[in-house]
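Worked example

This section walks through a single chain of length 227. The input is the sequence exactly as stored; nothing has been trimmed or padded.
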Amino acid sequence: MKNILIIDCGPSLSDITKHYGVAPEWIMESLKNKGCNFTWVKSYAGDKVQSNNADAWIITGSPCSVYDAADWMVEIEEEMKNIQSSQIPVLGICFGHQLIARCFGGEVELNPKGWELGAYPIQFTAVGKRSKLFSDMEDNAIVYESHQDIVTILPENAIELAKNNKGNQAFKIHENFYGVQFHPEFSWEVIKMYVSVRGATGVIVDDPSVPESTQGEVVLFNFIDLI
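Given that input, the structure is written out below as C-alpha cells.
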C-alpha cells in the first residue's frame, strides 16, 4: 500500500460542502482503487505536517491566498524545503500549486486577466507532452478551474509543463514537486455548482456551458503511479 498524506488547506464553499463534501474526500474517492492509505491533515486548522511518514503528498486548494503568508502556510513551506532533496513526490493543486511556486522563489499574484472559473482547455509544453504526470492526456484537454490568483513568475529551475491563455497551468521543480493550477479532483457536478454559486456573486464565467472534462482526473492516477 502507498501512504499518501493529504495536506488540507481549507474547506470548500459552504454550498459545495453541503451537497458534495470537501476536496480530500474527492481525492480519496478518485484513488480508492489505487492501493493507497490516506492521512488527512487539516493544516489550516492547526494540524502539523509530518514530513517523514508518507510515500507522497497532495496539497489541496484553499479559499485563502498564498501571499497572505499565514503561519500554517509558512509551516507547510518549511516542511517542503525539508523534503526537497528526497524522492517523495508532491502534487500541489491550485493553492497547493501556488504554494510550491512561492516556496521555491516564484511569484503569485491576482490574475489581471480575471477569474478562471469553469471548464478550460490547457496546452502542454514540449516537456509536458513527455511528462508521466500527463500520460494519456491529449493536448487541449478540458480541465476544471476555480481561482483568481496565478503563478506569474515560476521559480528558478522550474520547468513549465502546461499553460493556457489565462497563464501557467502546470510546472515541475526539483524532480519530485509538481503543481497543477486546475482541479483534477473536481467532478462535473462540483464545478457546475462552483460556477453557479460564484457566478451569482458577479464572477464572470468565460464559458457558461461548462463542457465536461473526461481527462482531468487522470492526473491523480498518473501521480500515484510516479511513487
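What to look for: The mean pLDDT is 96.
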